[in-house]
Design a protein that fits this description.
Blueprint: H1 14-43, E1 57-62, H2 78-81, H3 89-92, E2 116-119, E3 124-127, H4 131-134, E4 140-147, H5 153-162, H6 172-180, E5 190-194, E6 220-222, H7 240-260, H8 264-286, H9 294-300, H10 310-322, E7 327-331, H11 341-365, E8 372-377, E9 381-382, E10 401-402, E11 406-411, E12 419-421, E13 423-424, E14 431-433, E15 436-437, H12 438-448, E16 458-460, E17 463-465
Parallel strand pairs: 1-7, 1-8, 4-12, 4-15, 5-6, 5-7
Antiparallel strand pairs: 2-3, 4-11, 8-11, 9-10, 13-14, 16-17
């Protein structure tokens, strides 16, 4: 090859020529990766979506702690008849129940303290502590046969958000961001909101982490207050023009670094810096709820003007959905009712009942519900027996974690409204019909976004990974 390039100076050694050639190859690789980065952040992977999506965006209302399905949407009147009786041994199948109550010697069954009524043309059974949700019953699809593999909070939360009970995998929003990119390059495609509540139930950032995917796909937490994103504002005395100049210089340095050490994280870093610069203008506008009319605050309830409340976060979620943010995750902690459930549950329900119903109505009147998938649920459900002692007079019972069955609801974005899918047994202990696993749930969610869950994968450490791992089936019966 050196003889074919006789025009090269004879003073250039073979090593120098290879170095220069390598830098040229590196430059080509950098250009290619920069182009790929642009595709991933704006247009997604080639060939994505796999088919026409029913939903353009997702709002996931996550009730952290495990809300009891027996006090909300899975009505079990037979528990009234058998109140205080021992859970039949046929249910336990010779094993002790999984969970914290496994050391109990007695497992007395208990009905809900709260009444249930049927609502809408669908006749959905809904607890009296969710009167506003009841008004939108015909927009909702209740999945009463959810089941999980994890029974403790951390692995169950991680499983629901990443498809695996152990940490390290990408979250749902990261997978969607990686596959589909974003429709608004001025805002993150994956945003997380957490209700400000006085509960000791920390939520780890790894629930919205990108895992082994490039870091540009991780979720960005928006906080209540003046600065929704930490360290986004310009430092005092630094102009926006100076920041732009700094970013241009930094980008050039990273490009030179890539030539000598090709690494996808370098391009991710450049994209994150650029996104942060654009967010300095877009985030204050998106999070400024003062632009909302009083009628909106009245719709979402008395907490709507309190920064960081669930109601306020629901309004913000709708504003982000209007700006084409693809995956919006709301966490509302406080549902871990091991004791004093009759006293505590109504307060939790009241905080989220009107905002949830308002979000459905708000999206619907803006003609956005049809392509916005709204999801409500937690990491698992609750037992049909009391945790600890039970008194029919004091009604101070609690319920333990339960992975065998729990309830979710979904609305909009290609979901049939006004139906219930799946059934639990008469005593509400396990699924009796049409079980929906976490993998099935994820497969269905991705399907609604136009993604074949078996075709969205990422090679890491010699293996192809996907959100649904090696399982999961789309629940076609709930699709519109």
């Amino acid at each position: 090859m050196l003889r074919q390039n006789s025009h090269l100076s004879s003073s250039i050694s073979r090593r120098e020529w290879l170095t220069r050639a390598g830098m040229g190859f590196g430059g080509l690789a950098l250009a290619d990766m920069m182009n790929a980065s642009t595709q991933a952040s704006e247009g997604g992977l080639p060939g994505m979506p796999h088919f026409a999506p029913k939903a353009k965006r997702v709002i996931f209302l996550f009730m952290s702690g495990g809300p009891s399905q027996l006090e909300s949407f899975d009505y079990k009147p037979l528990l009234v008849k058998h109140q205080g009786e021992e859970l039949p041994q046929s249910y336990l199948k010779g094993k002790r129940p999984a969970g914290m109550a496994g050391s109990q010697s007695s497992f007395p069954m208990i009905p809900s303290t709260f009444g249930f009524k049927q609502y809408g043309q669908s006749g959905a059974w809904i607890s009296d502590v969710f009167p506003e949700t009841a008004k939108v019953a015909d927009d909702l699809c209740f999945i009463k046969s959810m089941t999980s593999e994890a029974v403790n909070h951390d692995p169950a939360l991680t499983f629901m958000q990443t498809g695996a009970p152990l940490p390290g995998r990408p979250s749902i929003g990261s997978w969607i961001n990686y596959g589909l990119g974003t429709d608004n390059r001025d805002l993150p495609s994956f945003i997380v909101l957490i209700s400000k509540r006085p509960v000791d139930q920390p939520l780890s950032y790894r629930l919205w982490d990108s895992g082994f995917l490039p870091t540009q796909h991780q979720g960005v937490q928006f906080r209540a207050g003046k600065d929704a994103v930490l360290y986004l504002s310009e430092p005092e005395g630094i102009s926006r023009a100076a920041t732009r100049q700094m970013l241009d210089t930094l980008k050039e340095m990273h490009q030179h670094q890539f030539i000598s050490r090709p690494d996808a994280e370098i391009t991710s870093r450049i994209e994150q810096y650029e996104m942060a610069f654009r967010m300095q203008n877009s985030v204050p506008d998106a999070t400024d709820l003062s632009k909302e009319p009083d009628s909106v605050f009245s719709m979402y309830g008395p907490d709507a003007k309190t920064p960081g409340s669930f109601a306020s976060n629901c309004i913000l979620a709708r504003r982000l959905a209007e700006r084409d943010v693809k995956f919006i995750q709301l966490y509302h902690p406080g549902w871990d009712h091991h004791g004093a459930l009759p006293a505590s549950y109504p307060g939790c329900a009241k905080e989220i009942d009107q905002p949830c119903a308002a979000l459905i109505q708000d999206l619907k009147q803006r003609d956005m519900l049809k392509d916005t998938l709204v999801i409500w649920g937690g990491e698992f459900g609750r037992t049909n027996y009391s945790q600890g002692s039970f008194s029919s007079k004091s009604k101070t019972y609690g319920r333990d974690h339960h992975r065998e069955c729990f309830t979710y609801w979904m609305a909009g974005g290609g979901i049939k409204g006004g139906i219930s899918y799946g059934e639990t047994d008469d005593l509400g202990y396990e699924v009796a019909k049409d079980a929906v696993t976490v993998n099935d749930f994820h497969a269905t969610l991705l399907h609604l976004m136009g993604i074949d869950h078996e075709k969205l994968s990422y090679r890491f450490q010699g293996r192809d990974f996907r959100l649904t791992d090696v399982a999961g089936n789309v629940v076609k019966a709930i699709l519109a």
